[in-house]
Amino acid sequence: MLRTVAPPSPSPLSRVADPDRLRTSASVVLRSVLEHGPVARSTIARLTGLSPASVTGHCDRLTRRGLIREAAAPRRSGGVGRPHLPVDVDPSRLVVGGVHVAVPRTTVALLDPRGRVLAERRLRHEGPEPPARTLARAAEGLSALLRQVPDARPLGVGFAAGGWVDRQAGTVVDHPLLGWREVPVREILAGHTGLPVHVDGHARALADAERLFGRAARGSRSALHLFAGNMVDAAFATHDEVHHGPRSQAGSIAHLPLAGGTEPCPCGRVGCLQAELSERTLCRRAGLADPARVVDAAAAGQPSAVRLLRERSRMTGRAVRLLTDVLNPEHVVVTEIGVIHRPDCLAALRAELDEERAATVVPTSFPDSVLAVAGGSVALDVLYRDPLAVSPELN
């Protein structure tokens, strides 16, 4: 005689874990739609290893939140069976705001869930100004952009800057060129916008952007991102995670010694990486006020501008060599103005590396909107990691 045994009730641990599994599965489904859409639910199940019922449930939740939508009329496979219903990321309703604060200007932008810049505004700094004033102007700029797209629903704001940015605390701990120390960015921007605010360093933000929306590092097991603007920072990602370290201090490479460097650094040494590669140094050597003008002068055939850009890219190549010797990444992405705009500068950078390593180095995937993407990607990374928590259900 068979004895019926009641199934055990879920343990407290399993009840705690269920929401985590739900969030993780929703993230996996949304990332699959981002990478492969338009894509059928059956294909998502095959790609992710989730059950068809689980995929259908997540697609329903993501659709209600305005994150995905059916991409086309139902298609039948061979005229039999249930129709395939391809879904894709929905760019029509939800946006994130992006704020990037650099030395000469603040860039504000709106991005759709695919990381595409819908609107952008650049706000030049009015000389030295308090951080609260810079952030208030950024919030005003975001409000002006939102008025241009009245049907859009903002999910949150991403903030990025160079220097030491503490993601968990939501603060800029130290940005020496701006003179910012322990600035509560999240608190200030949230107070002005009424939206959730997410904060990170711009090199890490761009590493996340490449991971989600870029060409080279997408799907890579490891990638290095080197940002060379007025600030020089790096980020390293392995297995879909960008390394932050305690208080998000990873990626500070300003004072690494650069072979062949001659530029005095405020720290008292000569040839520090940031002093040598800073756009301030480039502009001073070129006698021009803006690095874009150096690029324009080189495009017009001015030999000194061409020489300066190639030399800066060559020195950037030495920095890449130094970092890749330690980290050995599969891919290297470089955000540097010469490499972005001139093939000869990319060649000069690669010439500092051995042939195998040189082939892994590419420019940023966002040459025309890199700062706007940096800010917005901080919020988009949070969205794709936990879409059920970040995105409200739409009526």
UniProtKB/TrEMBL annotation:
Source organism of the structure: Streptomyces edwardsiae
Domain HTH marR-type: from-to ranges: 28-76
Superkingdom per UniProt: Bacteria
Pfam family for this entry, one: ROK
Family indicated by similarity: Belongs to the ROK (NagC/XylR) family.
Lineage of producing organism: Bacteria, Bacillati, Actinomycetota, Actinomycetes, Kitasatosporales
This protein's name: ROK family protein
